[in-house]
Amino acid sequence: MGAPKKSAVRVSEDTDELVRVPLQAILLADSFTTKFRPITLQRPKVLLPLLNVPMINYTLMWLESAGVEEVFVFCCAHSKQVISYLEKTQWLSQPNFTVTTIESHNCVSAGDALRLIYERNVIHGDFVLISGDTISNMSLTEALREHKERKKKDSNAVMTMVIKRSKPNPAIRQSRLGTDELFMAIDPDTKQLLYYEDKADHSKAILHLEKSLLADNPSLSLHHDKQDCYIDICSPEVLSLFTDNFDYQHVRRHFVKGLLVDDLMGYKIFVHEIYSDYAARIDNFRSYDTVSKDIIHRWTYPLVPDVMNFGNTATKLERQGMYRASEISQSQSAVIGPFTSIGFGTKIGNNTKISSSVVGEGCKIGSNVYIEGCYIWDNVIIEDGCKLRNAVVCDGVTMKSGAVLEPGVILSFKVVVGQGFVVPCYSKVSLLQQPVEEDSDEELEYADSTSAITSKVDTSDEEVASQVLDTQLHSASELGVGGVGYIWSKCEGGHEEEWRHSVAPIPADKISEAMKIMEDELELTYDGSILPPSGELKPDCNDSEDDDNEDSRDDTYFEKEVEATFLRAAQENIQEAHLILEVNSLKLSYNKVAADCAGAVFYALVKYALDTPHSSADSLLQNVKDILRKWKNVLRPYLTDIDDQIEVILKFEEMCSESAKAFAPLFTSILHFMYEEDIVEEDAILNWDDEKKDADDSDKVFVKQAQGLIEWLRNASEEDDDDEEE
Amino acid sequence: MPDVQSLVNDFVNQLKTRKIEGSQATAKQTAEFIRSVISQQRVPHTNQAATLINAVRDVGEQLIAANPVELAVGNVVRRVLHIIREEDHSLTTAAVAGLGLTAASDDENDVDRDDHPVLSAAVVAAAARSTLRPPSLQTLLEDMPDSAAIPPTSSSGGESEGKSRSMDKGSIGRKLKHDVIEAVNELIQDIATCYDQIAEQAVEHIHQNEVILTLGSSKTVLEFLCAAKEKKRSFKVIVAEGAPRYQGHLLAKELAARGLQTTLITDSAIFAMISRVNMVIVGAHAVMANGGVIAPVGLNMVALAAQRHAVPFVVLAGSHKLCPLYPHNPEVLLNELRSPSELLDFGEFSDCMDSASGAGSLHVVNPTFDYVPPKFVSLFITDTGGHNPSYMYKLIADYYSADDLVVKRRAVTGN
């Protein structure tokens, strides 16, 4: 027993030496963004429930268990709500963990908040900078030790960022948490952060690194599979830096990038990577969904519902990841699927199905309701026969019977959805009207509008109530019969792509679309003979089928180009030689062979014939003959080989069956004409026939049609042969 | 009281965040904590025992709720409650005996015991009274000195109590608290020394040239094996690594450092190795009243393998691990699922868990405990000696009072 005691004593001595001041933390209880609107108009983000527990509890609990002794909670929007919530909970009365609130109404960004805290002069040593929506179970000791050691050696090492490995989705270039792909350059030896880019220009798939970066650092590793946990260990200098640079607003966008670019002051930022621990920030609805699922899957242990036991109601974990609080009344016939959490006192009716969802406290769910992947908060009433998929439903919402929520819907507080009404995908519904001023400078605007709205909400519930009455009068139609609330217009605040940040899974077509775009990008980079910036950008699964796709797409481009060139030539009477030259250059730039050109030119000719006005099939045939006769010299250079000629026949066949059905009855006569004009040789036609022997009947339509011609050719050739033999 | 409450919150937090781990450490710290609660509790003149019991219950309920999986917390709370009852009773009987069979003895001192007639209380011997059932052989043997020691106190203390009752109430109160704290100290001592007590019996069980198999790491097992080694027994130990926490690696290192011939195997090789093993010795997380064992994950598999080859399966458990509950009891949460990060690296597999792109189909389950039914256990070795599984309920009845089995319900009615 002696040994462990001794070591414990030694450890505490060590920490005493290192930390003369208690470890402090700044918790920003405001994210200064608008991603969670319209919900955040009425309740601050940090108080939004995550598995029925307000988020800020997770953050505080982690800070407490990580050994932080003093936390300053900075409240801005809805500060009253945050403070009164903290007063209600036990956080303000912990013996070894002091929580102090700092209130401000005129801060519009994290930068302002940090400047204000600097003025208060409350931070005396290293501190942890975190926002109130960060979930983690990491141990700080190692990161702190590294930070302090670096600080001893180099006083310019002002900040340590915590990062974690997490692969971004290769198709849509965003992480699991719905944030954009993040590129970082890190010195592998010292772990110094050299480059940070979270808004990389995907359209070009090119990153620009300063030349000096490569010159100054002997080694450098570029990562794009790291996730920024938004947990920073900062030295007190960080606060003064914010004060010196009064234009720093955003911690990442301005401060981190500012320090990285600025070589005058020589401040350095380092990273600390965590492996087995969990850390993530809830930045948007997508990450809300992802982090909730991670908690249900217990990655955040011990911050999981059955262990945390926050509040007074114990939650128990049952088989297959079902978390159930006490006093749930559930019908025998109701089916509650795996990875679901049901809150205290919720009632569930007959034949209701709930899967991978979170249901809050005191909800009433009727019969035959179908709920999948939803986040339903407290005191929600869902009547019989409703269907909800991948939606967020806030406190006090009522869904009348038969209402349907399509994926990605957000229903803010106390909204009523009318009977049988279908709320379309990705809609955001609130009792409050959508604020109008949105565009110019988002951050500044945001603060103004929030504070205005906040005060409105805070001051008078009656006003909201009267608004509600208004709503009932005005927009009864907007949410069906008896519905209350406004559907916000979709293109809001530059969220051009809602599916990126929604709780709903990304639709399959979006993924495939993104895959295509990515391939196109790759193609462009190859065509421009620029190597892709890193091997990682190339998808691993670039197999033959993708190549096929590329080829076919390429073909159509090429064909269009050739067709356009030909039309111009036909209209402007350009010389044949010039046209051939142009087609040749296209052939080179698209990396095509003669057969492709033959096909394309032929296609252009026939298309031209088709587009020339004609009254009947006969006149069309005449058109084709005229045009072919006139332009056959253009075709000729590409028809040196039998294969090229077969290509032309195949092309023609394809056209007859697909794009230009008018030619179908004329197939044989045109083929015969082409034979007569020496565009195609006898052998080509016979080979084509041979090739088609094994094909399906559907492919043989034209072979049969041309049977007479083929027979005649065969006989002729046999006769020739016979002649030769004789 | 606010002081106590904030202390409780602090301790509850430590339990919640799983900062205190391992049943021995938990038991010890819980006992120490309850001792401080008792010593801070102000005792009124009347009804001291009930006050103490309520105080301990209130705190105990919160502690148990903080970590329902760690049964040692509940065990210690119940042990302390039992101690209070016993001490109170021995004092009351002493007082009653001193006063003789006068009618005045029917006073408030006995409120706590009013379900028992005074007469019978006076008649029943102190040792036998602690249990409401016929005395077991062990209690008879163990409690002999106690019952012998009681008569002198009753005769000596009885004189003064008879003279001035106002004074003796206070002294009884102080004495009760004092006695309880003394007894809790003993309990803490017991918990601290349970390793030694168990290890003392090692030589009786481990014989020359035997092969012992164990899984994971247990301090009790380590001490047990080392004690046998110190007694010049030479034997081999096979350690299964105990995935996913791999504490077997630590045990193997420790054993090898102490000069034991050690072989480390994977958990999956247990069945292959079991045929050459003479005895399986493992530690437990908790022993239930039916003789079933809550043990680190993987032990059920070991037990099955041992049974298949008729290898004795021996479980070492300190008395603080004996739990008076049955495993079908809904109050017992048998298992705890820990973080999947012990099994696999989040970063490497993060794309399989990206629910957004529809690939989120990978689920990881990481249970901490196994339940080994009593029929697989050949022998329990506790600090009081070796016992058959079917005997555990009796052993448990010696340590706990039947009134305390459910800590929660009584606390609610008590308030």
How would you explain this protein's 3D organization?
The complex is a heterodimer of chains A (726) and B (415). With 726 residues, chain A is an alpha/beta fold. Chain A folds into 4 domains: 18-287, Spore Coat Polysaccharide Biosynthesis Protein SpsA, Chain A; 388-489, no CATH class; 508-537; 544-725, Serine Threonine Protein Phosphatase 5, Tetratricopeptide repeat. Helices cover 41% and strands 17% of the residues of chain A. In chain A, the strands form 7 sheets. Chain A has a 9-stranded mixed beta sheet with strand order 15-16-19-22-25-28-31-34-35. A 7-stranded mixed beta sheet of chain A has the order 5-4-1-6-12-8-13, sandwiched between helices. A 6-stranded parallel beta sheet of chain A has the order 17-20-23-26-29-32, with no helix packed on it. In chain A, helix 3 (79-88) links the parallel strand 4 and strand 5 (98-103). Chain A is elongated. Chain A starts with a helix and ends with a helix. Chain B folds into 2 domains: 2-193, no CATH class; 201-404, Rossmann fold (3-Layer(aba) Sandwich). Chain B has helices spanning 2-16, 23-40, 48-66, 71-99, 118-123, 126-129, 137-163, 165-200, 202-205, 219-230, 247-257, 270-274, 299-308, 346-349, 392-399, 407-414, and strands at 211-215, 236-240, 261-265, 279-283, 286-287, 293-296, 313-316, 369-372, 379-382, 385-387. Chain B starts with a helix and ends with a helix. Chain B is α/β, with parallel strands linked by helices and 415 residues long. Chain B has a 7-stranded mixed beta sheet with strand order 3-2-1-4-7-9-10. A 3-stranded antiparallel beta sheet of chain B has the order 5-6-8, with helices on one face. Chain B is built from 16 helices and 10 strands. The longest helix of chain B has 36 residues, at 165-200. The chains are: A alpha/beta (726), B alpha/beta (415). Chain A binds chain B through residues 1, 61, 64-65, 90, 93-96, 137, 164-167, 169, 171-172, 176, 178, 225, 275-278, 286, 289-290, 293-294, 297-302, 307-309, 314, 316-317, 321, 339, 505-506, 508, 511, and chain B through 6-7, 9-10, 13, 16-19, 65-68, 192, 333, 336-342, 345-348, 350-351, 353-358, 360, 363-364, 366.
